[in-house]
Amino acid sequence: MHPWIEKQRHLIDFTLAALARRKTRNAGLLVAYTLIVFVLASLMLFANALRTEAAYVLAASPEVILQRMVAGRHDLIPPGYIERIGRLRGVQKIEGRLWGYYYDPVVNANYTFMARPADEVADGRIMVGATLARERGLAPGNTISFRSYSGRLFTFDVAAVLSPDSELLSADLVLLSERDFRAFFEYPAGHWTDVALAVVNPLEVRNVAAKLAAALPDSRPILREEVLRTYESVFDWREGIVLTVLAGAILAFTILAWEKASGLSADERREIGILKAIGWETGDVIRMKLWEGLLVSLTAFLLGFVAAWVHVFHFGAAVFAPVLKGWAILYPRFTLVPAVDGLQVATLFFFTVVPYTAAVLVPIWRAATTDPDAVMRA
Amino acid sequence: MRPSTVVFALLGPLAAATVMVLALSGPSTAAHQPRLDANRALVARLGLTDLALFTEARYTRHPSQADLHSALQDHPGAFDHFPSGSLLPPPALVRRHASLDRKAASPD
Fold first, then answer.
1. What are the start and end residues of each CATH 2.40.40.20 domain in chain A?
2. Contacts of A313 (CB under 8 A, 6+ apart)
3. A109: closest CA among A164, A155, A176, A171?
4. pLDDT tens-digit profile of A299-353?
5. Do B52 and A112 touch (CB under 8 A)?
6. How far apart are CA A215 and CA A247, in angstroms?
7. In the predicted model, what is the mean pLDDT of residues A100-125?
8. CB contacts, 8 Å: A340 with chain B
9. ipTM beyond 0.95?
10. In degrees, to the nearest 5, what angle opens at C-alpha A207 toward C-alphas A201 and A212?
11. Which residues of A touch B59 (CB under 8 A)?
12. CATH number of A64-223
């Protein structure tokens, strides 16, 4: 074996023997360190997985949604409004949408009703999200009644249950025909909930929105990029909330680790004195301590990260899910995409391994450069 | 056995697992691709704009479509005042399906 490697191995052997002499203290530090990495890595992986999923699927949402505002609130699109938009360069399709909310007192949950063309959902039939179907015990072929806001009872046949794979998007969806939708909500004829515009060229989207805002001052265009940004900020905020709650614990650990790494006990001081007295060079003592810092922090990082990955992607992040996902009566079941951001992992590595390893250097350099006799007597 | 050998035998697999997690992130995400593509197609077909995570109010169900001037909704993603936006678990009262408003017998 190369003499340099052999020397490092001897140094590691010696370091490990020294660590083993203070077993309880070092094991405690390693456990606390691993837990901190585990918590941070779990948060990071979970939030990143949700962000990745939201960004990917919502990238297909309409380029522009046009709402009409009345007294600062979302209002129905009246007849003739879509015609007033007229022809806009770059707009491929303008489509009025019908959707709304229905509160179901049976399960105390809100559903999202959405009208679909007759060729998709026939009159008298509905398609429902898998979460809703589970909560109300529905299967294709069943019948369900909803009492409309006007007090009339409407009965629908369940034509299909949407794929459970899409629960994250369709948990509370009820798709019904346009005629049923208008009858159920007593929607005024010719009115729409909002308007979706398909814009071919992504560079044109802002121009289209500006033209819409100029032509229809009471409208509010919502761009796809705003939708994506909303979800980015929602999960960033949730991640931030958990980090804030954990800030105290992280700070406490930082103080503990700093204290451990930067302060030398009398035993350690004497040990260094003896090593120097028997002929160890200052460089060797520093290298030994560097190995100690690196072994502790690297072990904590690797253990914490791998445990976090298993926790998030195999156990559904059971520890943090309630905070990060939120809650609702109709809560979708979904699997997370095991997307790992290399840059985030590198950042976590840098902020967990490097500071600890560096923190051991200063006191050891001071002790190692002092006269062995003075060090041993101190 | 030398202590360094034991430590490397423990750290080696852990390091390999970490590298594997990073390296396989792409392929394992690819395994979810059909599901993601199907969901993206559903979003495109239905014109969906939001995730169905919190269904209790319109500005939590569709945060990106919320009114600019509704309570605490000055911008998309602003703080909401339902428990889904806080650290509180759902109150037991809600979980038990207690009477809120318009509590009625099941119409079906």
1. 64-223
2. A45, A49, A336, A338
3. A171
4. 999 999 999 999 998 888 888 777 666 667 778 888 888 888 889 899 999 988 8
5. yes
6. 49
7. 92
8. 21-22, 25
9. no
10. 115
11. none
12. 2.40.40.20
